Amino acid sequence: MLLLAGCTPLGYYAQSVGGHLAILRAARPVPEVLQDATLSEGLRRKLILAQHIRRYASDRLALPDNRSYTAYADLHRTAAVWNVVAAPPYSLTLKSWCYPVAGCVGYRGYYDEATAQTEAARQRAEGLEAAVYPVPAYSTLGWLDWLGGDPLLSTFIGYPDGELARIVFHELAHQRFYVSGDTVFNESYATAVERLGGAQWLRDEADAPAREAYVRFDQRRRDMQALMLATREALAAVYASPAAKAGDWPQVEAMKQAAIRDFRARYAQLRAGWPADGRQGAYDAWVARANNATFGAQAAYDQLVPQFERLFARCGGDWARFHAEVARIGGLPTHEARVAALDAAAAGSTAIR
Fold first, then answer.
1. Of 308, 309, 317, 350, which residue is most buried, by most CB within 10 angstroms?
2. How do residues 196-220 score in pLDDT, each as one tens digit?
3. Considering the entire predicted model, what is its pTM?
4. 101 vs 43, 97, 251, 296, 333, CA distance in Å?
């Protein structure tokens, strides 16, 4: 996920800039933190591991070699920011907010949860479905490297080893390449980098317990992604149905609620089959608040991932070649042109050199 300050009204601009500067003020270089005699052994291990992951990202994945993730900040809260997303009652298309550099994106981030909830209530008052979700990390796209870059945060440093690697790879991917205003392309690319890079890191660097823990964790995620995709497709069919075209909104609402009930019932079945390891309820809150806005937001992160993964395979697993090809495609003038070129490149029969 990325977040850049800069938008009217000025109050939003002020909280965005002020929130990020507060994080930078809280950050200390990792070597300095490691000298703290009161540091827990668990946090010490994670910080050392994060430095190895950071070096791996640059050396093996051709991701930026800069100051990001070489400092640590304890935020004393559960999320770095809280994102607000909103969508119409009978559409999965997210409302957009526009920012300098980042362009128009389908969310608005706040450093204070209560303020985010107020914004979500404002969107509901305008007739939209809205949701607020916590974000453990974000990217400033490398623009603030001169201030120390993006630090490691207490909101994600305790993640399982494989997840810690993935989140660092994802955010660095945003620094490697970013298209202003194309959330789906950007997030799908970063998600592909985190999945492919995370799998490679696990093979190369992780011990057997970490790999086994990650397999369990990732299976749950894949189960949920498949269920979310199936539900998005069901909802999209409802919103494109003859009833919707005829403006029969009571019928559309009934079909919509049936799709949501089916989603929650299928989730309950999935959850019952997951290992009782203390993490089986990780998706409960997401499922409870699921609506058009949350399904629309999820789509941005995985919609084009299969194409990016196939493109990586066509590049022979060469990270530099892959990033260069992404930059070539990303340089096209429209989202539609980028998707068409990505589809063509991913489906090609010859290797990309």
1. 308
2. 999 999 999 999 988 988 888 888 8
3. 0.89
4. 35, 12, 42, 23, 16
